Each structure stands twice: as structure tokens, then as C-alpha cells.
Model the fold of this input.
Amino acid sequence: MFEIEESKKNKKLFSKNELYIVIAFFCVVLFILLMTFFSPNYYKSSEPIELDVKHGETFSNVIDSMYAKGIIPSKTNMKIVVFIYGAEKKVKAGRYAIKNGLNYIKLVESLTNGPSEEQILVTIPEGIWQAELAKILHKDLGADSLKILELSKSRSFINSLGIDEFNLEGYLLPESYYFYPLTNEGDILRKLKNQMDKIFTPETEKRMSELKMNKHQILTLASIVDGESNYVPEFKTIAGVYYNRLKKGMPLQADPTIQYLIRGKHKNKIYYKDLEIDSRFNTYKYLGLPPAPINNPGKDAIIAALYPEQNNYLYFVSNGNGRHIFSKTIEEHEINVQHYRQWRKTQN
Done:
């Protein structure tokens, strides 16, 4: 009995042949894994393929882009490596130059380490003139400011963006943007224009129809609103004033249109002689809206132009503290203007 128990105790889990089979199986699996994840992924191009990863973009979207560009032959294999690395939320934004022959492991490591060139954040203020926009793009991105201005008036370039106007000013949305270094001027302007297009949805198209205004007119009015104030809560009130004046056939008498004509010739001042400038942009001299936007309005000003406040105001003047005082009659307005002038004297 004791001998039988001993023989059972000493019996091995695998026989010699079975052990060889198990080892061979794991060797085959290991070989397959090595061949799958460590073998180079080759594409046809002799040059590195550029891959742009946007801020906040998921690794799944990046993998789709890589597959579409032919960088990887299998999305599943790439996803497996990403999962093993726990890299689902670790992809870094930027422009990558993917070299030919990188395996899945190297690709994941590259995308989690980040590109050699980071994107640059550029903030564009609302209500900015085109010349000032060109200066910012030159300062922050190294863009050719003259090229920016040239493209802004190039009929062929403007038409290529689907715009039938003579100037891009007013059609470029001021916001904060990420750009890659050395992005060409055409792509920069295209990006700003595409962002502006996102505001004009079927809902806003319906609203413009109700107002009997087209996109060009809305952007023109919005540019005046943006030029009048930096205080967003009164944008809709200002827009309401201009709609009231348009309905009554009154001249808009909008100071920003004069400032646009003299382009800062007198710092923060407009003289009576400026009101006599013979131009369709002079809203003291000509009725209705000016022929085009006078700056690039921001989203808040555009929304104000689309959804103005319903009021009975016809006039407004600065209160000296960055806001405005509104009035319904010329008598009230003249009193408010006198108060403003007195305030100005105290500042001098």
C-alpha cells in the first residue's frame, strides 16, 4: 500500500513528449506575437506619412486615420497594443511624421511620447480688423502677414472657400486655435473660415429668413455690434437699437464704421470732419448697412445680430466705464451725451 502511494506521488504532470508539445505551443504563440506586434509595418510611400492628431482626439479615431493612410495593415492589432499599454487616453496632439517600417509597439510609444513639433495656441480677439489679424498670425505663427492680406482680397482664393465676396474680412471667426508650426497661410485662413461656417446651421438659416437678412448682412451688422462694445451682455440691446433704426429708415450713425475708415488715425477719437468722408461705409452719410463687415465679429456678436433684443431704444452713448446708456428719444440722448462729455473733461 505504501509503495502504491509513493508511485502516485512521484507521477509527473506531463510526460516528456507532452512537455515538448506544450513548449512548442508556447514558442509558436510567442513567435506569432513577435511577428504580429514587432514586425515592421511597411507602406508604399518613400517619404514619411504625416499624421495630424487634434487636441482631445481619441486613440480610436487616430487608429482609423492611420489605417486609412496605410500606416498600419490592421486596426485590431493596433488596438490590442494600445490596450496592453493602457494608452487609450495617453495619445498626444500634434503633427507626426510617421517613418516607414515602424511596428505597432513603436507606433504606440511614438503617439504617447508626443511629436517633435507641438501645436501652437493662437488667440484671436473678437472684432479684429484684418490687418491686425495678419500681425497676430505673423507674431505667433511666423505667417507672412502680406500673404494673409493678399489672400484675404484674392477673388480666386475667396471663391475657393465658397464665398462670393471681394474680401474675407468678416468671414473668419475669432477664437483660440491650435496650429502646427509652418502651417501655410491659405490653410490658416481656411481653418478660421470653416469655424465660422459652424455657426450657420439650418436653424440660423431659418432665423435669417425670418429677419429677411442674408449671411453677409448678419455678419456686417454683427461686426458693428462687436465694434461698439466689449461688454457681451449688452450686445443684443445694441443690435436691437440698430434694427429699430433700420426699420425707421434712420441712418445707423455707427462710430465703428468711421473708425474703420480712418483705421485708428486719431487714437480713440472721431472728429466732425471724419463724418464727412464720402464712403458707403460712412453710416452717418449713407442709409442702411455698410457694404461689407468692418471687422471679424465673434460668435456672441453674431448671435446678437440673429437674436436682437426687442426694445424701443434708438440711441446709446458710452457711460465712460465700458458700458452704454440707452435712450428712446433724442432729448434723452442729448442729456446722456452731455453727461458723457462732462465725464470726458474730468478724465482730461
About this structure: The two ends are 117 Å apart (CA to CA).
